[in-house]
Amino acid sequence: MIFDERSLNSMVKHYNHFTKNNLTYNTMLKTVLTDNR
To answer: What digits encode the pLDDT tens for the residues 1-37?
Structure first.
């Protein structure tokens, strides 16, 4: 699947709304970024 910037932003906004900026998600994201460094 190919995503353009607009669709990615849309998905991110939708997901953030869905999780209500869930702290668990933010922590997981930081962990993933750290592991991939």
So the answer is: 566 788 878 877 777 666 665 667 778 778 877 776 5
C-alpha angle 5-31-15 in degrees, rounded to nearest 5: 40
- How far apart, in whole angstroms, are the C-alpha atoms of residue 28 and residue 26? 5
At 26, list the tokens: 């933010």
Q: What is the pLDDT of residue 30?
A: 82
User: What whole-number distance in Å separates Cα of residue 2 and Cα of residue 8?
Assistant: 10
Q: How far apart are CA 1 and CA 24, in angstroms?
A: 27
Q: Decide: helix, strand or coil at residue 17.
A: helix
Q: What is the CA radius of gyration of the chain?
A: 12
